[in-house]
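Sat 14:20. Reprocessing the chain from the morning session after the first attempt stalled halfway. Input below, unchanged.
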Amino acid sequence: MALKGLDYFKFTPKTNCKECGCPTCMAFSMKVAQGGTTIDKCPHIKPEDLAKLSEASAPPMKKFTVGAGKAEFSLGGETVLFRHEKTFVSKCLYGVNVTGDNVDTVLEDAKKVDYVRIGERMFCEVVNVEFTGDKGKFLDAVKKAAAAERVVILDCTDVGAAKEAVELCKAGKPILNGANESNFADMSKIATDAGVLLGVRAESLDALYDTVQKIEAAGNKNLVLDVGTKSIKDAFANAVEIRRTALNPKGGDRSFGYPSIVNLSKISGGNHECEVGLASIFTLKYGSIIIMSGLDYAAALPLYGLRQNIFTDPQKPMRVEPGIYPINGADENSICATTVDFALTYFIASGEFERSGVPVNLIISDAGGYSVLTAWAAGKLTAGSIAKFIKEKCEDKCKNKTLILPGKVAVLKGELEEALEGWKIIVGTNEAVGIVKFIKDLTA
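Finished this time. Tokens:
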């Protein structure tokens, strides 16, 4: 159960020493309770009290890091069931299922999906390597998956094959998804010795719960839970029940407080459209890792868009830093354009300017992280704010005094011409789709 500010305040020195960075001990305690800082920032709390508070305030779902390098991601750490209560912590990961027979083709297709949306790289983050009985082919597939710079899941219940596979790729922090009711002791030892997460599966939720408790009793709490592959209905029910059990506000059961794996390739019946639909459902409730038989742009575009919306903090606008962004090799003599700092607006507009091939200095001022019309209506995007930013940050860096204004705020043109003496203000397009033709015609 989450601790309140007063719970933390009891253990502070109550001297308001400010060494934690807060003006008072009460302010510090409230900030800790809200997740704005950590209790260890107070240097005066006794070590034994710090250990108790850290344990009591730990999230009901454990948080882990998987993968390495460019493919390092967080899993778990969730504290709420619904996004409107508080932002989700770790985005779900999408992956593909491969075997020794199809690893080359599936990986090659998955690698083609790699693009940037609103500053975030969208690509296939996980490769699930399924053991189908041939150890040689399995190990060969593991090598290829490890070389693909993705998080590798070793989907294998064979203890011997699992041990060899872990040795091949343990530097990349894979997940060994192979523990069940009969082999959990051996699998847990392999995972513990290699320092990797252990995936646990069972025939029923009750059996899964019992197996997890046995593994925990043996000292391993670095786990992920496989929701099962009996049917779509069972997988969904298990995913929801696991999350609800862990995050029950009246006192969750931490034996189910682990991230989950959903392998859709085993329950979709080979129907790709069904898989994509199911992936969207498990993105919402509650797959930490979602495995499909393959991934292409038709599936990726809606899925990654949905994920970005769900796992973005609704209390924090998605925005870029104010400044001058040279596009297509722009220099001080290049034409200027301006728009707001809302990330989606910036990336769409900058992409269109880039597509035009015309050098442009894109000037981004502080507009509160809102879209163009919203920022204007809220008084965040005004002639005064644009002029002030340009005078303070841009005039000495921009010799070309031509500025393109977003068409939706054409009403600011007159005021800007008065505020920016010597600048030529041009009203641009209402929509980004018209930027390429507009800028080419303007500079022709």
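Residues 232-247 form the longest helix (16 residues).
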